[in-house]
Amino acid sequence: MHPYMAxxxxxxxIGLSVAGLMLLNGRIAGISGVVxxxxxxxxxxxxxxxAFVIGLIAGPPLFAWLSGAWPxxxxxxxxxxxxxxxxxxxxxxxxxxxxxxxxxxxxxxxxSPRSLxxxxxxxxxxxxxxxxxxxxxx
Length: 138
Prior knowledge:
The chain has one domain (5-136). It is mostly helical. The N and C termini lie far apart (38 Å). It has 6 helices and no strands.
């Protein structure tokens, strides 16, 4: 199998999922909004949000079961650093009115100017951070 096929297949499945959720439910598949919806009593919509998150959590074990192995992973940071990074990401998604999946996948597909500005900001900030960290590395 070509090394890019897994990424291509994953990207196609994400695109189909986002399009399906929009066409069938009229909802944007932004993870921060879905997770925030779990804490609110919204009837059937809350059930759909819970099912969505369960699917996200069940994906890796399902992959391991189907393929026979977990993907190779290695941690490059301690648990406190990862927890702090997670809190910063959560703060950023609230500040930016959405996460990278909502703005980058669903927002850009809808030609949302706000999502275009958000994705540009995400990418520019990421590039600046990598450049600064590489400049500081020994």
